[in-house]
From TrEMBL:
<dbReference type="GO" id="GO:0050518">
    <property type="term" value="F:2-C-methyl-D-erythritol 4-phosphate cytidylyltransferase activity"/>
</dbReference>
<keyword id="KW-0808">Transferase</keyword>
<dbReference type="InterPro" id="IPR050088">
    <property type="entry name" value="IspD/TarI_cytidylyltransf_bact"/>
</dbReference>
<keyword id="KW-0548">Nucleotidyltransferase</keyword>
<dbReference type="Pfam" id="PF01128">
    <property type="entry name" value="IspD"/>
</dbReference>
<dbReference type="InterPro" id="IPR029044">
    <property type="entry name" value="Nucleotide-diphossugar_trans"/>
</dbReference>
<dbReference type="InterPro" id="IPR034683">
    <property type="entry name" value="IspD/TarI"/>
</dbReference>
<protein>
    <recommendedName>
        <fullName>2-C-methyl-D-erythritol 4-phosphate cytidylyltransferase</fullName>
    </recommendedName>
</protein>
Length: 148
């Protein structure tokens, strides 16, 4: 919410204003992905970026597999995620601390509010650097880009 408060303080926010949020740990985002988010935000109050899952997603509860959803319905969420600012604020303000802690992305806030969430095609290269192996991969990609 820090970014939204900053926008209010510095510029004010109108009904139609959107916020395109990106993880700093995804350095290879493309212009195309950002533009798709903005384009879809004209039709949706929220946009998520995702790529189809290539691994099967396995849900685990209490150390046991509880569900193996059909893979063709499964996507991996990325950023940017884009929201209409007033709609996002309205839902976020109503959420409990526990609900907020359980969030792993911003698009979910809008789903909880009952908004349809548009989907922008992500890219494998828009990877999230989380683990040491990701950093090795990212360095290799960055080096390759430098060499081109
Ligand atoms: C929003 C996100 O990038 C979608 O993949 C991801 O969930 C952020 O996760 P984080 O590692 O908790 O920042």
């Amino acid at each position: 919410m820090g970014a939204i408060n900053y926008i209010h303080d510095q510029f004010g926010a109108n009904e139609d204003d959107i916020l395109v949020m990106h993880d700093a740990v995804r350095p290879f985002v493309t212009r195309h992905i950002i533009m798709e988010n903005i384009r879809l935000a004209e039709s949706y109050k929220a946009v998520d970026t995702a790529i189809g899952a290539t691994d099967t997603i396995v849900k685990v509860e209490n150390d046991e597999v509880s569900e193996i959803p059909v893979r063709s319905f499964m996507y991996q969420g990325q950023t940017p995620q884009t929201v209409n600012i007033p709609a996002f604020e309205a839902q976020y303000e109503h959420m409990t601390d526990e609900e907020r802690r359980a969030l792993s992305d911003s698009a979910k806030v809008m789903l909880l509010a009952g908004h349809k969430v548009g989907i922008a095609d992500g890219d494998e290269s828009n990877m999230k650097i989380t683990r040491p192996y990701d950093l090795r991969l990212a360095n290799a990609i960055a080096k390759e880009d430098d060499d081109v």
